[in-house]
Amino acid sequence: MAIFVTGGAGFIGSQFIRDTVVQNPDELVINFDALTYAGNLENLAPVDHLPNYRMVKGDICSDADVLAAIPDGCSAVVNFAAESHVDRSILSATEFVKTNVLGTQTLLDIARHKKVGRFVHISTDEVGGSMEPNQWFSEDMPLNPSSPYAASKTAAEHLVRAAHHTFGLDTVITRTSNNYGPYQFPEKLLPLAISNALHGRNIPVYGDGLQERDWIHVADNTRALGIVLRRGRSGQTYHIGGRNPLKNLDVLKILLKAVGQPESLLTHVTDRLGHDRRYAIDCSKILAELGWEPEIPFEEGLASTIKWYQDNQKWVERTRSGEYKEYYRRMYGETSADTTNA
Ligand code: NAD
Ligand code: DAU
Q1: pLDDT score at 211
Q2: Closest residue to atom 36 of ligand 2, CA basis
């Protein structure tokens, strides 16, 4: 049994691998990652000594890279690899189209030819676009992406469904809401705000700060992904949410209270272009079919996440400075190609 995980050096993929290699010691987990600015092998340090874990550096857009790394008889591909930050897609969408669309199609073609058992594709609630007040995004609603990032994730989903419909590839799509937790790159709202708050630095609030996001702890998400991988119905899409839409300002006030810092750190800045007002995901299907529901209450998950960032300030500093690339050099004796950083 081998699982081919793409993007496993990122935030969610690394949580999935840390869980899976420990819980399933008889399964080989291959972490296939291009190690862009967002990929950090330090995220795998707790498990990288285990015999059922293997890292291969490669690009999902490259047939040659993927073919060289994917084993015969692979039981599943779990595709996390993506450009994931909305603001970056607004600055330039090219890499998003390349990795998120072309990369997904490359993996689909190879999965089909190599007769991979199952293709799990990780998507996002952003494909549904902004919800009205009190509206919840369910699996059967039309897709209506707003940002270049969301548009690229929507295109990828269509290609996954096409591979299932046309070629009978066993595929499952998950759409997750905003994840938070340890090891998240500090360009995203919560890790940025936590590390700024811990140092008494201002926290940028886009526009009026009244946008709503549905927060889920990353460990709740990866538990759901394990269930979908093993028991999800072929060809289906499952929503994985925290059932917890909160306004950004409210999230940040909870955070500031938890770390004992004043609300005066909140600094309104120019709004994100095309900023979606509300995401809220209906995850009743996965509860009804597979018995999964989120277990980590937001304030509890936030408290443990704050503690992780407090205890791992060196990780944040190394991530911000790009120093974490040294870890790759020490492990593999090579220079990582991409040393860009936030
Ligand atoms: P991330 O940015 O932290 O990590 C992405 C990983 O993909 C990195 O390790 C990076 O090196 C790798 N990667 C990028 N381009 C690659 C390429 N061409 N080939 C191989 N590897 C490549 O992302 P994340 O936050 O962990 O998100 C993982 C997935 O979940 C993404 O598909 C994202 O769209 C989706 N998602 C994320 C969230 C969230 O809140 N973070 C919510 C919903 C869905
Ligand atoms: O909804 C799922 C999506 O969540 C994922 O698909 C994306 O990969 C992930 O990046 C995330 O997208 P968001 O745009 O919602 O996350 P971000 O952390 O960038 O922003 C969360 C909210 O906070 C959003 O309304 C913008 C706002 N924001 C963000 C930053 C970085 C601020 O107000 N200030 C900031 O500095």
Answers
A1: 98
A2: 204
